[in-house]
Amino acid sequence: MSPQDGLTPSQVAAFNQDGYLIIPDALPPAAVAALLCETHRLLEEDFTLEGHPLTKFQTGGDDGQEHVGDDYFLGSGDQVRFFLEEDAFDVTTGQLAKPKERAVNKIGHYLHVLNPVFANVTSAASQDTAFDGILPVAPIAHSLGFRDPRCLQSMIICKQPEIGGAVPPHQDSTFLYTDPPSAVGFWYALEDATVTNGCLSFWPGSHKTAPVRKRLMRRDDRTGTHIVDNPGLQFPKDIKSDEADLIPADAEDDTSKYVLGEVKAGSLVLIHGNLLHKSEKNLSEKGRIIYTFHVIEGEGTTYDNKNWLQPPAQGFTKLYA
């Protein structure tokens, strides 16, 4: 695969069949080191508890309904903010029971613009030599059929040792919805992701049979979020599913259908917005830091003004100038 050509035909076919694609060595070792170094600098230097609302990142709970929705979260679309791990708190006192650097669940959601190190991943012309040899993002998006790919959010997810929370089965388009659905996740491992520290698991092919039934939307009073029935299209236009083949909502957590996605640091995982995927809690002594951003189609789709994430004044970031 030539870096400027995007994905090979066989890679595109694999993504279309399975709904995800693992690309080893998408980041050179120097880039992995630079991103990890910047992550630790953010945690140690930029993150302070002074004035922080102690917003915890909630992944949906057992019923799928409990999600973070305070102003600190809702206003993070053009900021770099820090969200805490639920199990980092002492249940009796409500105070942090871990050092602040070991308490963060994720950092988001505008790293791809505001942080010059992480901006190198989506940049077509990075000046940082550590990123020489990185697989360019825009040609990959073009390979997947995007005409006007837009990066709408970016996150560091820390999956902290011993307390990194489990993420139940979900579809990214539930949270980053366009009508019709178009989201694709670009997920980069900055440390080895293994079964012991909470690697991803995927239901192969579920992007063709799992409708986007629900959406995370802002409440009408704009004070928080809630999960509601999806009133729009449930599949991208190029996917036609027979009603009889659809995965029932109550079967999405069937563990026998998921396959592990263990990857080495530097790997890129592409994830279709309709694909069911999950990760388990990290009970090990080793963390699992990753960087992820999501791309949506800017041409021929509608972005709802009730989506939890709203575009900045200049709009979502174009991957093509």
Automatic annotation (TrEMBL):
It holds the Pfam family PhyH. Its cofactor is Fe cation. Signal peptide: none annotated. InterPro entries: Phytyl_CoA_dOase-like. Keywords: Iron, Metal-binding. Coiled coil: none annotated. PANTHER family: PHYTANOYL-COA DIOXYGENASE DOMAIN CONTAINING 1, PHYTANOYL-COA DIOXYGENASE DOMAIN-CONTAINING PROTEIN 1. Belongs to the PhyH family. This is Phytanoyl-CoA dioxygenase family protein.
